[in-house]
From TrEMBL:
GO BP of this protein: viral translational frameshifting
Segments of this protein annotated with the region Disordered: 13-66
Gene3D superfamilies in UniProt: 3.40.630.60
A GO molecular function held by the record: ornithine decarboxylase inhibitor activity
Comp. bias (Low complexity): 13-29
Pfam families attached to this UniProt entry: ODC_AZ (PF02100)
Function according to Swiss-Prot or TrEMBL: Ornithine decarboxylase (ODC) antizyme protein that negatively regulates ODC activity and intracellular polyamine biosynthesis in response to increased intracellular polyamine levels. Binds to ODC monomers, inhibiting the assembly of the functional ODC homodimer, and targets the monomers for ubiquitin-independent proteolytic destruction by the 26S proteasome.
Name of the protein in question: Uncharacterized protein
Family: Belongs to the ODC antizyme family.
Record text on subunit structure and interactions: Interacts with ODC and thereby sterically blocks ODC homodimerization.
Composition-biased stretches (Acidic residues): 44-59
């Protein structure tokens, strides 16, 4: 996987000597399982959240293999037409609407409220609606300019930080809403950054949600790269999430590639 030189990834090539390892038995098609030895030996990360026993386990359910359980998700998108920070008016969640619905646009901001599901491309039958208790009801559109600054305090690409307001201008703000949680993100140039401060990777729901984010980022937002950030504060959560994403084909982004907050762990996926 190569991001056109913008990022420095450390890719590993499986030797194929261990036929029982997950890296030699993947049936996930476009998603390749990874040999973690290269990452463990590189010494580029101060603390490695993985263990060999975890990576060699055949009982893990947090990969994109296996049966797919389709959960509908909603994605709320706010586009800043000028390339600056999104309009800061209060965000009001839209009701469940057909994908063709397009609400009125604000004077400086193009808003798009659409329900997106992998069912759009997999089946003509609508997915079952989650119960009201399973859907996030109290959430607000995040200040992604602040989120971008927290992740890249010294700026990202050609975007310089606003040191007064502690923000960085973004092109698109996005909020992925799943049953039980919401995941914020933002787009700068052709790269979408998604923050996973909490994400349950138990069961097959993780598989579908990650695929939904990948497909939405590529087809609806026309992004070429997907970067996920995971806080290092919760070591157990970091280990589970990073392992799951790497099984899905994501690769570790080196702290040496560009200047991001060392309290975060970044992984990238090439959408191009």
């Amino acid at each position: 996987m190569y991001f056109g030189g913008s990022f420095d990834f450390f890719d590993s090539v499986s030797s194929g000597e261990d036929e029982g390892s997950p890296g030699s038995s993947s049936s996930a098609g476009m998603f390749q399982m990874r040999d973690m030895s290269a990452f463990q030996e590189s010494g580029l990360l101060e603390e490695d959240p993985y263990s060999e026993s975890d990576m060699e386990s055949d009982s893990s359910n947090d990969t994109l293999n296996g049966p797919t359980y389709v959960d509908p998700i909603e994605c709320y998108v706010e586009r800043a037409c000028t390339g600056g920070a999104p309009d800061e008016t209060a965000f009001v969640p839209a009701p469940r609407l057909s994908p063709s619905y397009d609400p009125p646009t604000a004077s400086k901001t193009l808003r798009s409220f659409r329900q997106f599901s992998r069912y759009n491309s997999l089946s003509s039958s609508p997915p079952p609606e989650p119960s009201k208790s399973d859907v996030v009801s109290n959430y607000s559109f995040p200040d992604t300019g602040v989120l971008c600054f927290e992740l890249f305090p010294n700026g990202i690409f050609d975007r310089k930080p606003d040191l007064v307001n502690h923000k960085i201008s973004v092109d698109v703000s996005v909020l992925f809403v799943f049953p039980g949680l919401s995941v914020p993100g933002f787009v700068v140039d052709s790269t979408i950054f998604v923050n996973f401060s909490y994400f349950n990777c138990d069961g097959s729901g993780f598989n579908d949600w990650v695929l939904s984010i990948i497909e939405f980022s590529e087809s609806e937002l026309n992004c070429q790269n997907l970067i996920v950030s995971i806080p290092k504060s919760d070591r157990k959560q970091l280990a589970e999430l990073s392992r799951a994403f790497m099984y899905a084909g994501f690769e570790i982004i080196s702290p040496r590639s560009f200047d991001f907050n060392n309290n975060q762990f970044l992984l990238g996926y090439d959408l191009a």
